[in-house]
């Protein structure tokens, strides 16, 4: 085969393609195994009030604790999970772990913190989602008001009507909703008022341009004042420097999340910072 196909170089090309897809299949199998063997873990990143410095919540961020490869970031496996449908099992595992953790901290007598959990399109659109979330809350014993679900603009924009309905079903359970990575999608600002959101998370790509880029700063300021007018809590993502925090404070931003305040960390580590 090598000889036949190899003359014009196509053999090499095809071989690479074939290897790529078999690599992918192996990865999918490995992820399936990881879910069964509970290699999915969560790190938690603090979200703080910019004025008082008080902890207002934590975001649960998934990692794969791989036996051979070590800790794997979500960008390396969440898209694959979405593509294959494994995200439904993965997402459920994340939700259960996050709710359980929040409840455990409360049971220890720590000040209750809101737990934010990311949700992908596939999960969000799943017909049984509201019932599933209700069951997880029931089983873990977490009061729904301490749970927040983060969704993205692109997810909403796929089908606005269906998304509004689904958001209503979720908020009816007593939890809150945040719009993640705001500014990267296509939703018009005026559409925001149609959605039952509590929190607006300005995407890191705008924050990282502060204080060098005038345009980004203008956008950030506009989003903050619009968010406030709509009664939303505005949170800036990816705040890394004091200069960024200072700018955001004077622009009226209420909350921040980023390396400046704390990186995503294991539960035990975050536990030590809890009041
Ligand atoms: P995201 O929800 O926007 O989460 C914020 C990401 O920014 C996290 O990356 C976090 O570690 C990173 N980050 C936070 N502060 C800073 C900062 O100051 N500087 C920089 N450079 N980065 C910062 P991570 O943990 O790698 O997660 C990436 C994305 O993967 C998340 O973006 C989210 O879209 C997705 N993801 C994570 N966990 C889950 C999950 O449980 N389910 C789903 N469906 N997606 C998840
Ligand atoms: Mg998020
Ligand atoms: Mg985000
Ligand atoms: Mg982001």
Can you describe what's shown?
The protein is an alpha/beta fold and 275 residues long. The chain contains 12 helices and 9 strands. The protein has an 8-stranded mixed beta barrel. Helix 11 links the parallel strand 8 and strand 9. The chain is globular and about 55 Å long. The chain starts with a helix and ends with a helix. The N terminus is likely disordered. This is GGDEF and EAL domain-containing protein. It comes from Neorhizobium lilium.
Which helices and strands appear, and what pairs or packs with what?
Layout: H1 2-6, H2 10-36, E1 40-49, E2 55-66, E3 70-72, H3 78-84, H4 87-107, E4 114-118, H5 121-125, H6 129-140, E5 147-152, H7 153-158, H8 160-171, E6 176-182, E7 199-202, H9 204-207, H10 214-229, E8 233-237, H11 242-250, E9 255-257, H12 267-271
Parallel strand pairs: 2-4, 4-5, 5-6, 6-7, 7-8, 8-9
Antiparallel strand pairs: 1-2, 1-9, 2-3
Helix pairs in contact: 4-6
Please sum up the structure shown:
It comes from Neorhizobium lilium. The protein is an alpha/beta fold and 275 residues long.
Q: What ligand molecules are bound, each kind once?
A: ligand C2E, magnesium ion
The H-and-E topology, N to C, reads as HHEEEHHEHHEHHEEHHEHEH
Distance between the termini: 67 Å
| Biggest sheet descriptor | 8 strands, mixed, barrel
Principal-axis shape equals: globular
> Radius of gyration, rounded?
21 Å
Query: Structural class of the helix and strand makeup?
Result: alpha/beta
What is the number of E strands? 9
Strand arrangement in the largest pleated sheet: 1-2-4-5-6-7-8-9
Strand residue content: 15-25%
Proportion of residues in helical segments: 40-55%
Low-confidence stretches: 1-6
Number of helices: 12
* Overall pLDDT: 92
Protein name: GGDEF and EAL domain-containing protein
């Amino acid at each position: 085969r090598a000889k036949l196909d190899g003359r014009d170089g196509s053999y090499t090309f095809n071989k690479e393609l074939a290897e790529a897809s078999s690599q992918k299949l192996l990865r999918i199998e490995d992820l399936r195994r990881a879910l069964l063997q509970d290699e999915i873990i969560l790190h938690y990143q603090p979200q703080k009030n910019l004025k008082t410095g008080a902890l207002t919540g934590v975001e649960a961020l998934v990692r794969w604790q791989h036996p051979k490869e070590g800790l794997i970031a979500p960008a390396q496996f969440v898209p694959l999970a979405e593509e294959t449908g494994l995200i439904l099992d993965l997402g459920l595992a994340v939700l259960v772990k996050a709710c359980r953790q929040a409840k455990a901290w409360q049971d220890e007598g720590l000040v209750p913190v809101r737990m934010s959990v990311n949700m992908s399109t596939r999960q969000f659109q799943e017909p049984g989602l509201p019932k599933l979330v209700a069951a997880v809350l029931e089983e873990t014993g977490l009061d729904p008001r301490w749970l927040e679900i983060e969704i993205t603009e692109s997810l909403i924009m796929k089908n606005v009507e269906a998304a509004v309905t689904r958001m209503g079903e979720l908020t009816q359970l007593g939890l809150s909703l945040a719009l993640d990575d705001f500014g990267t999608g296509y939703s018009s600002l005026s559409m925001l008022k149609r959605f039952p959101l509590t929190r607006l998370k300005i995407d890191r790509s705008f924050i990282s341009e502060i204080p060098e880029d005038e345009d980004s700063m203008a956008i950030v300021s506009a989003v903050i004042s619009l968010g406030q007018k709509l009664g939303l809590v505005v949170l800036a993502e990816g705040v890394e420097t004091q200069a960024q925090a200072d700018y955001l404070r004077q622009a009226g931003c209420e909350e921040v999340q980023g390396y400046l305040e704390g990186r995503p960390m294991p539960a035990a580590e975050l536990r030590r910072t809890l009041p």
